[in-house]
Amino acid sequence: MSLQNFMNKAMSVWMSSEGPDSDIVLSSRIRLARNIEQYKFPTLATNEETQEILAFFEETFANKTFNNIGQLELLKMNNLQQIQKRVLVEKHLISPTLADNAAFGGCLLSENEEISIMLNEEDHIRIQCLFPGFQLEEALNMTSKLDDWIEEEVDYAFDEQRGYLTSCPTNVGTGLRASVMMHLPTLVLTQKINRIIPAINQLGLVVRGIYGEGSQAIGNLFQISNQITLGKSENDIVEDLISVVQQLITLERSTREDLYNISKDQLEDRVYRSFGTLAYSRIIESDEAAKCLSDVRLGIDLGIIKDISRNILNELMILTQPGFLQQYYGGPLRPDERDIRRAALIRERLSLEMERKKRMEDDES
């Protein structure tokens, strides 16, 4: 399969589309944790109980159309190969917990992959909407509609004082996790991020890596999300996060401008060296690839590198992960083989971008 055809089938909307403030914010996500009243939480439930829940959702919601997003397809974890599950994790459509531990776990997935409903993970139901750019309010609106749609068929575990009941006490209340994925290269480069993260934590928010809790901030990508779910409404939680993200956007943009004005030659040299590494390397490890992709994305945003889509960072950050590499090349790869294939895939993707640029120039002439 050609890379272009593979990308057309493999890329989620949030990876290949631009949204508001997409120079800084790659994606916005809302997730709601819910449990069914008459069943024990998945952490205590028997295989028979979780299998019964999965069968109920298959009968009630699979292949049903919601709003204008088309049908929801049910993916059963025990029917998927390990590489397929890893790809879903890399695309942020399921959690590592669901991929690794759920004997009778599943995921209801919309065709455009904006909507993902995990079943029998830490909670019976985890509803997720994932939008490109800075669209938290839009994602909350869609998630709330999905929540109402499911509740027409399900009795949620709910307490008048505590709110929605969840397996983990930190999710009790609204059960809501709102998060944005941000590219903050100059805040890292100037070390301002070291002062910002503690300040954000004091506001009841948390800063994590690209794959959430326990993951590293590779490629200067950070997830900013709420920690508090109890005592605030869903709208208040989202509004608080929006306020902090807007400040981070302003600070990252001003830092980029200041850095470019003060150290133009050094910054351009860094960007072009990284571009050369990506364009010509024959072997590249994931950490080095992530660093270079971040530099190139910064160069695109600053106008140093022209006529290359900034979505290339979104795409290549995912395409060069182990699951995607092995799916594209058709089977398991050793770490050293992945480093070789990663370099080849990046060169191929940049070549496609150059071809796109040339076609555009030919059409204009």
UniProtKB/TrEMBL annotation:
**Activity modulation comment:** Appears to be allosterically activated by the binding of pArg-containing polypeptides to the pArg-binding pocket localized in the C-terminal domain of McsB.
Q: Which reaction does it catalyse?
A: L-arginyl-[protein] + ATP = N(omega)-phospho-L-arginyl-[protein] + ADP + H(+)
Concerning InterPro entries, the annotation shows: Arg_Kinase (IPR023660), ATP-guanido_PTrfase (IPR000749), ATP-guanido_PTrfase_AS (IPR022415), ATP-guanido_PTrfase_cat (IPR022414), Gln_synth/guanido_kin_cat_dom (IPR014746)
**In the Enzyme Commission scheme, what number(s) does this protein have?**
2.7.14.1
| A Pfam family reported for this protein in Swiss-Prot or TrEMBL | ATP-gua_Ptrans
> Where is motif RDXXRA motif of the pArg binding pocket involved in allosteric regulation found?
338-343
The family assignment reads: Belongs to the ATP:guanido phosphotransferase family.
Name listed for the protein in its UniProt record: Protein-arginine kinase
Species whose genome carries this gene: Metabacillus rhizolycopersici
Question: Organism classification, top ranks?
Answer: Bacteria, Bacillati, Bacillota, Bacilli, Bacillales
Name the gene that codes for it.
mcsB
